[in-house]
Specification:
Layout: H1 2-25, H2 35-38, H3 49-58, H4 66-83, H5 90-108, H6 118-123, H7 127-147, H8 154-171, H9 179-197, H10 204-225, H11 231-237, H12 239-254, H13 267-278, H14 283-306, H15 312-338
Helix pairs in contact: 1-3, 3-4, 3-9, 3-10, 4-5, 4-10, 5-7, 7-10, 7-12, 8-9, 8-14, 11-15, 13-14, 13-15
Length: 341
């Protein structure tokens, strides 16, 4: 563990040095001209959060499945090429994601066999359907993580909270999981959280894609190793990126906008606009406040879930509560944003 902390410290120092070089060269930074990337700040910030997470992830080489490492690398580099504007087409990126994740699921024989929904469980006995369903779940989390990564510490903080919840459940004996892996998540995400708070790094597509892929696989495997817990507790942990993606796609389709293209009408952005309008705080403060109001809410929900980890009924109630609160708040904020004074 001491060796790992030394490695992570050196890695962080290297990334900080790399940041200065990238800013000077105006390469792999947030200032690309896209409205959705800079609506909260004009600071030119390096998109190196994903690099830091990826390199820390590689330090666990002996702890992880070879296919997991290989395809995590592929997803990461797809994000890098997106950040560098080599892969500009959102549709093409999605096609590549589906292709590579499908290959990963097939080679690794990853399965979801028990959802406690009778009809779905019957369908999942078919290998082809099971593969497609797993790919669908992973794709939603990967792209949902990218959709809600728009405020400092929002995406990083969300997955940090999940990591801490999983660590606590393991520590208390509620579940069994590899402690080394979860401690890696906590440590590197905490470092990213601090750096991101001060606009020193952004995740970029590489970071958000990688976090979505890693955590979707990690939580599926967590349930496969701990069948005594409710599968809906896993769904609850990932409800926000999942619903953010599905809600946004339906919203955009309804408004005749491409579901794959970014915009500035996500829940976190509407909350930012609202708080900015109501307060005289600096933009950076409103940014941080908006993100952590959302994460504070999710923390409360996760704490309730954690204490009822085997109770499917409570998990379902919490999921439905989240969907209802999200939808109601979204439309209220949307109306306030576009309401004519």
């Amino acid at each position: 563990m001491i060796f790992y902390l030394i490695y992570l410290s050196l890695l962080t120092s290297c990334v900080v040095i790399l940041n200065k070089y990238l800013v000077d060269k105006k390469f792999l930074t947030s200032n690309t001209g896209d409205k959705h990337q800079k609506f909260t700040s004009k600071i030119n910030t390096p998109l190196t959060g994903g690099i830091l997470i990826y390199l820390s992830f590689l330090s666990l080489f002996n702890q992880l499945d070879k296919y997991f490492i290989l395809f995590s690398s592929i997803i990461f580099f797809l994000g890098i090429f997106s950040d560098m504007k080599f892969l500009k087409s959102a549709k093409f990126r999605l096609i590549l994601q589906i292709l590579f994740i499908l290959i990963f699921v097939y080679l690794s024989e990853m399965r979801i066999n028990d959802t406690r929904v009778f009809l779905l469980d019957q369908l999942l006995t078919n290998s082809f359907f099971n593969n497609i369903f797993v790919v669908f779940c992973i794709i939603i989390i990967v792209n949902g993580s990218n959709f809600f990564d728009g405020l400092n510490t929002l995406c990083i903080g969300y997955y940090l909270i999940i990591s801490l919840i999983v660590f606590y459940l393991n520590f208390n004996g509620n579940i069994v999981i590899n402690n080394i892996i979860i401690l890696n998540f906590i440590t590197v995400l905490l470092i990213c959280f601090i750096l991101n708070s001060f606009n020193k790094i952004f995740l970029g597509d590489s970071g958000s894609y990688l976090l979505g892929f890693i955590f979707s696989i990690f939580l599926i495997e967590l349930y496969n190793l701990n069948r005594h817990i409710s599968p809906f507790s896993i769904i609850l942990m990932l409800w926000y990126p999942s619903f953010e993606l599905l809600f946004s796609m339906i919203r955009k389709k309804t408004l005749s906008i491409s579901p794959l293209e970014p915009d500035s009408n996500h829940l976190h952005q509407l909350l930012f606009y609202y708080l900015k309008k109501k307060n005289t705080l600096k933009i950076s403060s409103v940014n941080f406040l908006s993100a952590n109001l959302i994460n504070a809410y999710n923390l409360i929900i996760f704490l309730i879930s954690m204490n009822n980890i085997t109770n499917t009924q409570i998990q379902i109630i919490l999921i439905l509560l989240n969907l209802t609160i999200y939808t109601v708040i979204y439309f209220k904020l949307f109306i306030l944003k576009y309401k004519k004074v």
